[in-house]
Amino acid sequence: MSDTIATNDASVRAEAYKRHKSLVPADALRSLQRKDSLKGATQLSLHLVLVAFFAAAQWHSRSASESESASWAWCAFHWGSFIAQCMCMAFLFTAFHELTHRTVFTVPWWNVAWGHLLGFTIFRPYHHYTFYHYNHHKFTGDLAMDPELQDSFIDLKLDNVFSYLAYLSSMPYWIDRLTTLLRHCAMCILPREEKFLTSATSKLVVTEANTYVLLYSLLAFWCYLVPFVGTLVWQLWLLPTLVAQPFLRFYLIAEHHGCTTGDAILSNTRTTSTYSWYRWLAWQMPFHAEHHAFPFVPFHQLKNLHLYLRATVARDGGCTPGGESGYLGVHIGLLKKFL
User: Domain residues of the chain, as ranges?
Assistant: First the structure.
């Protein structure tokens, strides 16, 4: 089947899976799919420690940087810490994403519990995203069924400079987050959501949304009663979360934009070259073609999986521009197509 034709035919997709599964020996694949709670806990802990460290640094340097006698060094330290915190908070999404795959911990409910905690932090309810993301993996590149190809506020179709800048600004994302959460509270499920939500899972999503909104409301009321708490919440959570989104959007654009549609996973998904620290912060998700080819392989094994797939990814990659020139190269290439 042509890579440019979308399909939700299960037999075609099963055949596509067999094609890339044959690239990895069975014994190696079994080893690669093995979860490791210690590695998951270490990655998650270090990520959260980084967020806390930079949050504390920007908080404690705030007053010094705002005083009339503040030196440029204090100002640079404060704003540098703030940007670093925002960068780390942006990639809480990739931690959250890995938790929805339930590959961080061997104990399933640990993934769910931490998934809800991070989902609450980044305003993405855990169960709703899990169902949404499952269909994205099942129908990657399918114009009718892939939820990321429906040209919604959260997943804009990028075909000109305006849509590109709108996506990077994150404004459509926040409009979607607010309206979707309130819609679900009111038991309103859109037709495009019915593609990945059953009547039973819709009820779970509605309950989840109401629970999140209740907790947000209680937190807002506490902030109202205790202004200092409100200052902490704004300075250390809400403001960094808002500023973090453009950093995340910059990363996410490279996953599928500019790639072919259709059933060939190694052609409709882009693996992007980058620095090792950036891959670590993004939970190894720059190896994105590998992740889509084998979604049950934990994040800490994607680098090893890449060794088996890199030649095929390089040969059969259907993304223009490719990912070999890094994230900046992908963005420059996309902008050239738009202009």
Answer: 1-32+258-339
